[in-house]
Input
Amino acid sequence: MKITKVSGREIFDSRGMPTLECELILDNELIVSASVPTGLSRGNYEAYELRDEQKNRLGGKGVLKAIEMLETEISPALKGKEPEVVEMDMHLIELDGTEDKSRLGANTILATSIAVLRAQSLLVETELYELIAYLSDLNTVSIPFPLFNILNGGMHAENSFPIQEIMVAPIGEKSFRASMETITTIFYCLKQVLKKHGKSTALGDEGGFAAQFSDVQEALDLVMEAIARAGKGYEDTCVIALDCAASSWYDTKKKIYQWQDRRMTNEQLCELYASLAQNYPLHLIEDPFAQDDWDGWGALTEKLGDSVKIAGDDIFATNPHRISSAIEKGIANAAIIKPNQIGTVTETLQAINLCKEYEYAVVVSHRSGETNDSFIADLAVGTSSGYFKAGGCTGGERLAKYNRLLHIEDELMLALLD
Ligand code: PEP
Ligand code: MG
Output
């Protein structure tokens, strides 16, 4: 089974922004496709996303240049070859020839890489997650613990509540299906609680409620009220995760964090996180400090690292080199893994393997601007990532991933009974 052609299509993501879909046409006339998401709170160290920058069309966000790269450079390079993701990723990195994939674009390369992986799984007649496990040198797979987004703030809600995501993780549940039942119950209880307190129940970009709060404690108290209101003992099975996305409210010149009307040094912010961890079942904090504030990261890892997962998103950008530096310095103890931050399946697997080798927890993650591609669900299962976040329990683009996990879980249960 060989690749005869690679082509691209401009499609639209969950925010109505253009993004790229790649199609591989195979010589048995099968067509496999993959599409890539886009982040809004993008870190400075992410690989380059190729956009048209043509202001008179789609605000410069079009991806016609990326399609041209796919069809004029990538297609001839892969044509006539059997799909083999590791070899092809290396080839694409070489063909691009830049550090940050800025010539062909990380979006162009990743869409191809995922499509190649899909074609390869057809070739070897395995499920996508099984092939990922094989490529990761693992002989088992597992369903991750979901971190469900329930409240959106910051850039995802366009309000002044600084925390980008408040998530609930039903880590005491025995199956992913039970976790889905738990989170949807809590979600609708939270809707009632928000209404009771006169808060908005409009949805943010990732499918959680985008209400305004005077401070984080008020938001967390309402989430805890919703958990209790469900009346099913979820207090014992659910924990809380935060994505603070602190790079978006850090003044790099003054080295000050602007938290609503409070201005804080990294030491004061560290104290605030410590008090949250004392008062709430806080399991994980993502991006508690800005991407270059390594001192803040170090201090918090030392203070809370034994009991709370301190997860790097912007600071690591799924880049094995940046994760390595953090490991050397004892910064953080968990990493957010977003394939489009680095731009190939192979480098994403390298980043995950590195984390596992040094016992950093792994959270496979979506982006805020998503498509219906469910690749990351297979990625989480195939690498046994441990954790997974794909937004709230609303929005087809989020449910595409969660429903894929339900499907895989059923498949794995059946295999166990066989
Ligand atoms: C995140 O910051 O974790 C996130 C999913 O948002 P975005 O895709 O906007 O970076
Ligand atoms: Mg984040």
